[in-house]
């Protein structure tokens, strides 16, 4: 017989911070995080060294989840690289229409973390590089004559669609992506 254990303080803090920093922004207070997680202040410092450490771990966790979501989206679209790339934009159009959509977590983090040396910025940069790498791979498979440049363009479209999606105007990114892909044979 197996017993199910409740998440420990570390996981509860990560879950609460992932939810609250997305819903309320990176500047959500420590007290709100502790209350939502149901943990003592000591747990925050023991597991993360403070709020900044928690923010970095939330960003790492979120980026891993989102990169996997991109991969799943592309896999579900089949073997055609063009269809796989456009599926990303179809997915973004769907996500941006959800009532709980609050924009791009990573852009919000970059804007909210004023210290350019905050370790959260390295996490968001690495995330964007991973996404660009996924796009570039598909563009190479497609035979695009400028896969690095086109991947940068599609990345910009993704960022823009997620930023504009918070205001309800991110749906036309797919059409622009089709223009970038039109250069491929």
Highlighted features:
about 180 residues; mainly alpha; Tetracycline Repressor, domain 2
Describe the structure concisely.
GO terms for molecular function: DNA binding. The chain is mainly alpha-helical and 185 residues long.
CATH first level of the domain at 58-181: Mainly Alpha
* Named CATH architecture of the domain at 58-181: Orthogonal Bundle
Indicate the percent of residues in helices. over 70%
Helix count from the secondary structure assignment:
9
Number of strands: 0
CATH homologous superfamily placement of the domain at 58-181: Tetracycline Repressor, domain 2
Give the uncertain stretches in residue-range form: none
- Average of pLDDT: 92
User: Approximately what portion of the residues adopt beta-strand conformation?
Assistant: under 5%
What value does the Rg take, in angstroms? 18 Å
Biggest pleated-sheet summary: none
End-to-end Cα distance, whole Å, is 58 Å
Which structural category do the helix and sheet elements fall into? mainly alpha
Question: Outline, from the CA principal axes?
Answer: elongated
* SSE string, helices as H and strands as E: HHHHHHHHH
Keywords: DNA-binding, Transcription, Transcription regulation
DNA-binding region: 29-48
GO molecular function, one term: DNA binding
Protein name: HTH tetR-type domain-containing protein
Describe this structure in words.
This protein has a domain at 58-181: Orthogonal Bundle (Tetracycline Repressor, domain 2). Helices cover 72% and strands 0% of the residues. The chain has helices spanning 9-24, 30-37, 41-48, 51-76, 81-95, 105-112, 119-142, 147-165, 173-181. Helix 1 packs across helix 4. The longest helix has 26 residues, at 51-76. The mean pLDDT is 92. This is HTH tetR-type domain-containing protein. One of its GO terms (molecular function) is DNA binding.
């Amino acid at each position: 017989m197996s017993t199910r254990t409740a998440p420990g303080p570390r996981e509860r803090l990560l879950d609460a911070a992932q939810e609250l920093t997305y819903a309320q922004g990176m500047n959500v207070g420590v007290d709100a995080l502790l209350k939502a997680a149901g943990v003592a202040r000591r747990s925050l410092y023991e597991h993360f060294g403070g709020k900044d450490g928690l923010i970095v771990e939330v960003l790492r966790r979120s980026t891993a989840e989102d990169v996997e979501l991109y991969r799943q989206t592309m896999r579900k679209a089949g073997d055609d690289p063009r269809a796989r790339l456009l599926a990303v934009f179809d997915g973004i159009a769907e996500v941006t229409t959800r009532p709980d959509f609050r924009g791009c977590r990573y852009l919000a983090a970059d804007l909210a973390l004023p210290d350019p040396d905050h370790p959260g910025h390295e996490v968001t940069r690495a995330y964007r590089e991973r996404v660009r790498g996924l796009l570039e791979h598909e563009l190479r498979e497609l035979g695009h004559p400028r896969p690095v440049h086109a991947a940068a363009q599609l990345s910009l479209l993704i960022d823009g669609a997620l930023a504009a999606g918070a205001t309800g105007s991110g749906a036309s990114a797919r059409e622009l992506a089709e223009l970038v892909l039109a250069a491929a044979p």
